[in-house]
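Record type: monomer structure entry
Structure origin: computed from sequence
Chain ID: A
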Amino acid sequence: MPSLLEMLSAGMHFGHQKARRHPKMQPYIHSERNGVNIIDLEKTTVLLEKALNFIRDTVAAGGVILIVGTKEQAKPIVERVGKETGMPYIHRRWLGGTLTNFRMIKDNLLAPYLDLKGKIERSELGKYTKKEQLEFVKKTEDLDIKVGGFAGLTKLPEVVFLLDLKTEATALAEAVDTKVPIVAVCDTNVNPSDIAYPIPANDDAVKSIEIVMNLVAEAIKEGKKLYAERPIVTQEKK
């Protein structure tokens, strides 16, 4: 866990203007400075540890974490952590129905994308005309932008991690609708009521995002290590 000094240096304590404060974030606010809400980082530390333990334990049990962060400064960090941990991620745009209509997304987008990508990687397009090959490549590139980060998702994830509840309002609504537990960074301008594991923190500053995402990556890796070390239980023949 980062020290309070490291969190302060990253600006994790800076919330929004007092006028934008959501009343349900009041318990996590330490004070105000020049009209800006200051987040209580001691409470952040406690809740962050709970969230990370939940993520680790979920992954250790074989669960999948869908990481979502589409705001500009978060995109490269989310992509890096997703690739680094092997977890599905969405860093460009949330597709409506990703959770609430997952079967349709899977059948109409994920499956075709994986099929086309596989054919291209195996050089199986030789039987098609050059025009058709170019169309396949273009379609694959288009699908890569839409679903590339979570193409390997075969079912609803066990957890959705959201970096910004305002930006990811549709993802939040779909997770709530499908009853997928949510872990989220909660700045002072959001309603944390639907969040199973809120992390009170600045959701705009790059350094704040990096600290949280690096810790999430570590929790996932630790969970994967624990999962790999699980004893194989064999059932005796009767």
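Annotation 1: The two ends are 49 Å apart (CA to CA).
Annotation 2: The first helix runs from residue 4 to 9.
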